[in-house]
């Protein structure tokens, strides 16, 4: 019973954070702002849901159920890599930023440094 | 109690999938569509985990792991295509 309560609390936390990430993706005005919502809030939400699943199945089947930890580890590793590649691609295709973004003049500097030849 | 929580959370995730689908259809640039698709992958993983909790079975974790891996590989492949114009150089 208490296990179900803890697991339900983690499930609801995870669902709310997933919804927050998607609302951020829906509402924010700029691609660079929109990149923040799914890579942080959605990762936290899926982590909370997987923690709820680990707690529930560990007590149900009497033994630590570690295979969900694999999904958690994989998502926590790959979300920053995805965000980095997306932001590099957005700088490469010169996506427009909001007019009141700070340090807009440094964008071109970052682009040219990244576009330098390797050798 | 856990089944009620699972139904409530799956409602939230369904709503967030609708928001992602809106961004996927409208998105001004292709990168917006990529990030909407990536978020839809994450929400689909959460739905599969919830189905596993609701039915009290551990059969579905391999499916969730497979979706996580395919989501990362497809996202990085399309990013590489936009960045370089080619996937495997």
UniProtKB/TrEMBL annotation, chain A:
The chain crosses the membrane at residues 6-29, 41-59, 65-86. It comes from the Bacteria. The keyword Plastid does not apply. One of its GO terms (molecular function) is sodium:proton antiporter activity. The keyword Membrane applies. Keywords: Membrane, Transmembrane, Transmembrane helix. It holds the Pfam family PhaG_MnhG_YufB. PANTHER family: ANTIPORTER SUBUNIT MNHG2-RELATED. This is Multicomponent K+:H+ antiporter subunit G. The lineage of its organism: Bacteria, Pseudomonadati, Pseudomonadota, Gammaproteobacteria, Oceanospirillales.
From TrEMBL, chain B:
One of its GO terms (cellular component) is plasma membrane. The keyword Transmembrane applies. Keywords: Antiport, Cell membrane, Ion transport, Membrane, Transmembrane, Transmembrane helix, Transport. The keyword Nucleus does not apply. The chain crosses the membrane at residues 6-22, 34-54, 60-83. It comes from the Bacteria. Pfam families: MrpF_PhaF (PF04066). It is a multi-pass membrane protein. One of its GO terms (molecular function) is sodium:proton antiporter activity. Signal peptide: none annotated. InterPro entries: MrpF/PhaF-like. It is found in: Cell membrane. Belongs to the CPA3 antiporters (TC 2.A.63) subunit F family. This is Multicomponent K+:H+ antiporter subunit F. It comes from Reinekea marinisedimentorum.
């Amino acid at each position: 019973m208490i296990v179900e309560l803890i697991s339900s609390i983690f499930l609801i936390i995870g669902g709310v954070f997933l919804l927050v990430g998607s609302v951020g993706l829906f509402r924010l005005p700029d691609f660079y702002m929109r990149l923040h919502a799914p890579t942080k809030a959605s990762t936290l939400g899926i982590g909370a849901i997987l923690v709820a699943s680990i707690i529930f199945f560990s007590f149900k089947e009497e033994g630590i159920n570690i295979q969900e930890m694999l999904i958690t580890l994989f998502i926590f590793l790959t979300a920053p890599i995805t965000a980095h590649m997306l932001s590099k691609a957005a700088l490469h295709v010169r996506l427009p930023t909001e007019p009141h973004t700070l340090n807009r003049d440094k964008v071109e500097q970052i682009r040219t440094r990244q576009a330098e030849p390797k050798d | 109690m856990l089944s009620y929580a699972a139904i409530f959370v799956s409602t939230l995730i369904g709503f967030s999938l609708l928001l992602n689908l809106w961004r996927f259809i409208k998105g001004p640039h292709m990168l917006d569509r990529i990030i909407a698709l990536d978020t839809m992958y994450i929400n689909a993983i959460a739905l599969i985990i919830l189905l596993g909790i609701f039915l009290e079975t551990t059969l579905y974790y391999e499916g969730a792991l497979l979706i996580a891996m395919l989501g990362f590989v497809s996202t990085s492949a399309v990013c590489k295509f936009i960045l370089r114009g080619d996937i495997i150089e």
